[in-house]
Amino acid sequence: MMMNHSLKNQCKLNVGQVITGKWHHNQYTITKELGFGANGIVYLAQSKNQYVALKLSDNGMSITSEVNVLKSFAKVQGSTLGPSLLDVDDWVRGTGTISFYVMEYIHGLSFLEFVEQKGKSWMPVLVLQLLSDLEKLHSSGWVFGDLKPENLIVTGPPPKIRCIDVGGTTIQGRAIKEFTEFYDRGYWGLGSRKADPKYDLFAVAMIMINTSYPKRFNKTTGGINQLTQAINEKMELSKYKNFILSALLGHYTTAKEMRKQLLYIVGEDQSNSSRVTRAQFRTQTQTRTKTSSVSISRSNTYAANTPNHQNQAPQQRQLQKKKRKSKGILETVFIVFFVTLLYAFYVIEKL
Amino acid sequence: MNTGKIKQILLITDGCSNSGEDPIAMAALAKEQDITVNVIGVVDQDTIDEQGKREIEGIALSGGGVSQIVYATQLAHTVQMVTRKAMNQTLYGVVNRQLQQILGSSKSVEDLPPDKRGEVMEVVDDLSETVELEVLILVDSSASMKHKLPTVKDALLDLSLSLNARSGENKYSVLVFPGKQNDVEKLLDWTPKLEALTSIFPKLTTGGLTPTGPAIREALSSFKKKRSLRSLLGRDDESFFEESV
Ligand SMILES: Nc1ncnc2c1ncn2[C@@H]1O[C@H](COP(=O)(O)OP(=O)(O)OP(=O)(O)O)[C@@H](O)[C@H]1O
């Protein structure tokens, strides 16, 4: 796109170039370009023998606006969501003044690269981390906005998820400042662009879908049907189907609530599926009532978990064919599940 | 600070004008009346010719707005981004001018130390959430645009989704050029509901010349008509920011 190019030229720096701030007189030696986007270019730089990330833009407004967000992030107790802000200054050069800010360099792989390299089992772990950070962010009155895998970097060890690019971060109740269509509920026709916690939770669910579709996909019919279809076609998503759909439909009101449900799903995975404790059972019924508008059969999830199906081809269509053949097994599983449910009721009655 | 009104023309085209006044001059005229002109060039696979590109940039430059050339697939995202960016620019300008009145004419936001700019930006952010916005959308409906019109419609609906998330009031009007009889045809008169477009857009016929200049001129008078209709008092001539008491 044109605008990016002209911006790129204006803010283009060479490796080894030294930038000195007009106000604070700090010096930064450019090491390499980290990336660029609609709002500026980010460089890796060295200052006082420390690596930092330096963002320049010919648009001073967007720099100031992002600095504002980073400053208020610093006030959020215990949150390590965004990079910490180190310096804000202007760089005067022949052709004019360019605003920049300096932040902590967040080194690591992006969300999708990490999951790709280390394995899909990392996905729920990272999502759990992200949700607890979002919880803190939301309770302090913000919505992240432009949540997407490219803006999530996994640092470590131990692996820890961090967000970069706070350009979309918006005060709750206002119109989302910046978004990326695939992760935007408005694009899919599933809600407004008014910043509320659910806006971010929708994006989290889309990121989970994204792990199975690294190249994303475009809107065709849009709406929950297309997204349900996309989930159905990937077997590895089947155990999260309920969970993802609930987030897409805005059934989780807080990140905390969503996190609790994911913890439950992960726990269920680990433990013997016939053992339903009272607490687990409670969460389960909760989800059920919440997602009642979507037709989700629990048996699907269970079928996917039976040993028979574990190593099957990922296509849900194939899975369905298979399922018809092994209808007997499915029924057995379903009956076991049903009996377990009854048993759980019984236990609760007793308590 | 009082919030007034922001007026924008959003021109969506795919090439060069070839009839009537110079669109760049018309955009300059708009700017004189504190109406910003933003231009989005929609191209197919191949890029736009040099002349068309120059005109698009020229119109936005002299209209004090933002321009961008994009593929049809990026149109929706671009339309809302350009509108938002131009709105913030305008507000920033307004705040800057107010600041100059306080600090003396030589000072601007850039002269403030970075720490102080944050507060100014907060004001701009607040205003962009609450300010009243009028967007006049000018759609090129010459023959080459025909297959892009459904995308344009979707992009405009997406724009209203973005703008309606603000708490400030929005008003939209849509003109197409060339029209059936005249250079320009009004498709939608000022309304807060851009969705009304859905039923009108499919009926649109395309063809003929590309009278971009006359279209911008007509757009300007549409802002005027609106004002006289609302019978605003005497001399509050087209200031972006009509200071309301
Ligand atoms: N603190 C950081 N540490 C490491 N890398 C960073 C940091 N900040 C930004 N980057 C890199 O620079 C790239 C561009 O930065 P950023 O996303 O902030 O720019 P942008 O102009 O806001 O982009 P977008 O168009 O996505 O909004 C990022 O994709 C990332 O690779």
From TrEMBL, chain A:
Gene3D superfamilies the record matches: Phosphorylase Kinase, domain 1, Transferase(Phosphotransferase) domain 1
Transmembrane segment boundaries: 328-348
Identification of the protein by name: Serine/threonine-protein kinase YabT
Xref: PANTHER family: OVARIAN-SPECIFIC SERINE/THREONINE-PROTEIN KINASE LOK-RELATED (PTHR44167), PROTEIN CBG02007 (PTHR44167:SF31)
Domain Protein kinase intervals: 28-276
SUPFAM superfamilies assigned to the protein according to its UniProt record, in alphabetical order: Protein kinase-like (PK-like)
Coiled coil: none
Automatic annotation (TrEMBL), chain B:
Alphabetized InterPro entries for the sequence: VWF_A, vWFA_dom_sf
Pfam families linked to this entry: VWA_2
Domain of life: Bacteria
Domain VWFA: 135-227
Protein's UniProt name: VWFA domain-containing protein
Organism, as annotated: Pseudoneobacillus rhizosphaerae
